[in-house]
């Protein structure tokens, strides 16, 4: 499948973001999704692993919905992350994801693959200590850390009644910013990496890419406009983008060169 070929085109950097994106679509489709907090609301949901530095979609997985008669999938977020990053194991990448995906078990498995995890985590996870869940007597902007040999959890109270919880296997020190917000280093790192897929969405919607990849998945329901050529001025030497292959048989690539006024 075409998604399995995306990794052949690009070597991702150290930081990887895993998230979902919704390709707008209102036609008839068995696995069309309704996600009210997305701008399009209706469409095809795709799990994406992005290179944080460039927002390049390194690999994708189409969510085709719960199969008829099948049991409800348990630990779906864990499975998605492990499948999307399988080819990266052993290279020391860091995966950033939100609380739909993050779990202690996922962090453990990524460590076995020589990868780190940074992610928000839901308060109902049994591995979190009680003192990180209680915020009534906590000072605003305070942080409470918890450590194991390989994991670090932090609870941060940005304002009264709000508790931000994160799990990391990358950070081993209780570091807190000296800035006014006094955010833990884990949160600052998470904030700098979490937007990989969102930036991909913006790039696609705003039409800023200089290459357009049109992908048709079997029923031709999905058109994904994929970016990976930076703007080039005619006559200038092309910038190396670490591309390994010029094209894929299963992907139609239309390359467009922008004018110098863009």
Brief description of this entry?
The chain has 262 residues and is α+β, with helices and mostly antiparallel strands. It is built from four helices and eleven strands, in the order E-E-E-E-H-E-H-E-E-E-E-H-H-E-E. The chain starts with 14 loop residues before the first strand and ends in a 7-residue tail after the last strand.
Please provide a written account of the structure:
This protein is an alpha+beta fold. Helix content is about 15%, strand content about 25%. The strands form two sheets. Strands 1, 2, 3, 4, 5, 6, 7, 8 and 9 form a nine-stranded mixed β-sheet that branches. It has a two-stranded antiparallel sheet with strand order 10-11. Strand 5 (about 95), helix 2 and strand 6 (about 115-120) form a beta-alpha-beta unit.
What attributes does this structure have?
single chain, 262 residues, alpha+beta, two-stranded antiparallel sheet
Number of strands: 11
Sheet/helix structural class:
alpha+beta
Unreliable stretches: 206-262
* Share in β-strands: 15-25%
Distance between the termini: 34 Å
Strand/helix succession: EEEEHEHEEEEHHEE
Radius of gyration: 20 Å
Overall shape: it is globular
Global mean pLDDT: 77
What portion of residues is helical?
10-25%
Tally of individual helices: 4
Largest sheet features: 9 strands, mixed
